[in-house]
Every structure is written in structure tokens, then in C-alpha cells.
Amino acid sequence: MSKRQVLNKQTLAIKDGLPLQASTGGIEELRRDIQRLMDMEAIRQLKYAYFRCVDTANLGELATLFHDDVTVHFVGGSYEWNVQGKADYVSNIGKSFSTEAVGQHNAHHPEIQMLSDSEATALWYLADNMWILNHNVKTHGTAIYRDRYLKVNGKWLIKDTSYERLYEINDVLTERPKLSSHYLGVHGTKP
Fold first, then answer.
1. Which one of 44, 47, 75, 92 has the largest count of C-beta atoms within 10 Å of its C-beta?
2. Sheet order of strands, 66-75 included
3. Residue 18, Cα to own-chain centre: how many angstroms?
């Protein structure tokens, strides 16, 4: 596992984006300002869709959210995960979110930096719970996500995604949880 670093905008390579202030010019500058706000909303919806698709193992839709050359680097308390390319990442998610998994991932408090009309970065705060039932394990914790987005043919895509855990707790389950609802139990992949 890599050495822990201080997590701040400098070490996370987050640059100042375009200014978040209304232009003083005419109608065309105002249109650009509004488009920038719409792009920021599109990026928020993209990330929210990412977590929904992960937790529901909706691999077909998940694949539409990534650039073909996406890079993934996740650093947890007991793991470091590197993946290159959309196909490999979606395949790995499919293996993890099986009928023997229960996932709950929420991202909030985005810090979105618009670098240009077609590139942006963001930090997201993650809170999650993940049960792997056939291994009798529950993991929960928080992390800071760092993403880079590219707008390709008018659509924002995740180009790079990484996180580092702020904390992670891994519990051994002494008994299987009594789930009254288990979506992945029906719609997850086979382990």
C-alpha cells in the first residue's frame, strides 16, 4: 500500500477552476456562465448516477458513465486497487456487487472546479457500508474521492477516479444479517 499523504487541494492536484462569478459582459457571456452552471449540475448528476449504478449492479448504465480510458485508483485501509480501462472497471464492479453483497454508497459535498468548457475536477465526500455476506464481512467508513471529467460529444464522462479512505472499519459478522429487502440478492451478479 502506498504511503499516506496529507489530503488537501495541493496533494490532490485540484487546481483553481474558472471563477464562480457572473460575467460583466453581454448576453453571450451570460450564456457561457449559465452553461458552466449546467455543466456543474451535469457532473453532480453523473456522480450520483455512478453510485446508484454501483449499488444496484446496473453495469450497462454504469459503463455509459466512463471514458473508455478511465483510470481508477482506490486506497483503503487494507487494500490498494488500480484498474485501467472502462471494461476492466465495470467487470470488477460486477464481481464485487454480487447476489452475496449489500452496498450503500453516498457522495456529497462536491467541490467542482470547471477547468474549461470540456474538463473539470471534483472532490467528493464518500460515506459507505458494504456487506460481503458469503465472506461474513462488513466494511464501513468514509473517503475523499478525486475525479477528473471530460466532456465528449456533449456528454460529461468520468476520466479518472480515485479515493483515499479517511477511516475504514472491517467487522467480521458472527451471523448473517436478517435482511427484509435485498435488491442485489435478486439483481446482483452470480458470485
1. 47
2. 80-84, 66-75, 155-172, 137-152, 119-132, 101-114
3. 23
Domains of the chain, CATH where assigned: 27-187 (3.10.450.50)
Is residue 149 within 8 A of residue 157, CB to CB? The reply is yes
Exposure b/e, 175-189, CB count within 10 A at least 16 = b: eeeeeeebebeeebb
Given this model, what pLDDT does residue 1 score? 47
Tens of pLDDT along 43-87? 999 999 999 999 999 999 999 999 999 999 999 998 999 999 999
Confidence of residue 2 (pLDDT cuts 50, 70, 90): low
- In the block, which residue shows the cell 486497487? 81
Pairing between β-strand 101-114 and β-strand 80-84 as defined by DSSP bridges:
unpaired
